[in-house]
Design a protein that fits this description.
One of its GO terms (cellular component) is nucleus. Keywords: Chaperone. GO terms for molecular function: histone binding. By secondary structure, the chain is α+β, with helices and mostly antiparallel strands. The protein has a domain of 48 residues. Helix content is 27%, strand content 15%. The protein has a two-stranded antiparallel sheet.
Length: 82
């Protein structure tokens, strides 16, 4: 595992840009619509966006990648499996 982490040195200069999805077409978020109860008057339906698992969540910004690599090194140091 340590060999794999050291081979990621070339990831230092990655440029990351956020994908701008069309409204309602994002593959990383799910739109939930809540309908009002049948007996309520003047109630509007509400919409809520929620993150969902997606292939596009695999790509992370470089700042988070560095933190993740540091965390992996710490976990490997403290693990019983060697």
């Amino acid at each position: 595992m340590m060999k794999r982490l050291s081979s990621l040195k070339y990831l230092k200069d990655i440029k990351w840009i956020e994908i701008e999805w069309y409204r309602g077409k994002s593959l990383t978020q799910k739109i939930l619509k809540k309908k009002p109860r049948k007996g309520s008057k003047n109630a509007k339906s509400s919409t809520k966006t929620e993150d969902c698992p997606s292939f596009f969540n695999f790509f992370i910004p470089p700042q988070s990648l560095r933190r993740r690599m540091i965390l992996m090194k710490i976990l490997l140091k403290n693990s019983k499996i060697k």
